[in-house]
Amino acid sequence: MKLEPERMVLDLARDLAETRTTLSNGLEDVVSRLEELEGLDIPDAISGLRKVIGEIAVGLQALQAAAEEEEEEESEGPGTAPDWRSVDKEQCRELWDWLCNWCSRVLLPVYAQEVWKPCWYRHAPLRIQLTWLCAYYEWSYEKHAPPTRAAEWHMRWWPSMEKVIKKELANCGHAGDVHDPVHEIPGEMAYEEFADGGLAEWIDRDVARRPDPEKKGKAKKDPSD
Q1: Which has the closest alpha carbon to 153: 132, 167, 168, 169?
Q2: Which residues are CB-contacts of 150 (< 8 A; sequence separation ≥ 6)?
Q3: Cα separation of 102 and 134, whole Å?
Q4: Residue 77 carries which DSSP code?
Q5: DSSP three-state, residue 221
Q6: What is the residue-wise DSSP string for 25-63?
Q7: Is 78 a residue whose pLDDT tops 50?
Q8: pLDDT tens digits for 151-194?
């Protein structure tokens, strides 16, 4: 192959120019970074960095502690079921409202139509057991609850309670269906209706016999009196 000295010289000159440009740009970048570092107070910068890292570490520890606390709370169980024996007037009213709302909204229309009778509230043992059934149901469907809770409610607690309801209300009903019923249900009322006409009065009487709520705080006597 024929050598072309002039072309080789031109190529060499071009390569040298490109190399000089690359080195020059690189050196300028290095110089500018060095100038930035020279303008910094390194000890203060390191101290500030340590402070930021410390704050992040504290925040992470708080998040971890909160997560562990939430896990502990979720693993404790459904907590204490409401105790009808120890409630005052206000608590009793709230308890009745809570139970009636759940039974009418969830239990009766979805699960209990075949065994329900509108005199249910007149049966104290049944009312108490429905209370813990409701508490367990709400625990089963609270936020982050595992599906095993709902599965246990449906496979264990509700079938057991269904038998209790059926047995407890067996001797109540229409006069033509039950001989000498404990609670006679009006003939025009279907068994799956939520309650007969006496529920409101029953609740009022139950609330009235409860103790008054304790006063949360007494006014301090003025020393100048």
Answers
A1: 132
A2: 140, 141
A3: 7
A4: -
A5: coil
A6: HHHHHHHHHHHHHHHS-HHHHHHHHHHHHHHHHHHHHHH
A7: no
A8: 999 999 999 999 999 999 999 999 889 989 999 999 999 999 99
CA distances from 218 to 93, 210, 215 (A): 24, 22, 7
Distance, CA of 107 to CA of 162 (rounded, Å): 10
Measured CA to CA in angstroms, residue 39 lies from 27, 42, 45, 47, 77 at distances of 18, 9, 11, 16, 60
Helix 89-102 to helix 124-140 angle (10° resolution) is 70
CA distance 151 to 140: 8
CB-CB contact of 127 with 84 (8 Å): yes
pTM value?
A: 0.62
CB atoms within 10 A of CB 98: 15
What confidence tens digit (pLDDT) does each residue in 39-72 have? Answer: 655 666 666 666 667 777 777 777 777 766 665 5
Q: Are 174 and 184 in contact (CB under 8 A)?
A: yes
Cβ atoms of residues 197 and 121 within 8 Å: no
CB 185 within 8 Å of CB 170: no
Taking the C-alpha atoms of residue 97 and residue 90, their distance in angstroms, rounded to an integer, is 11
Question: Which residues are paired to 173 by β-bridges?
Answer: 184
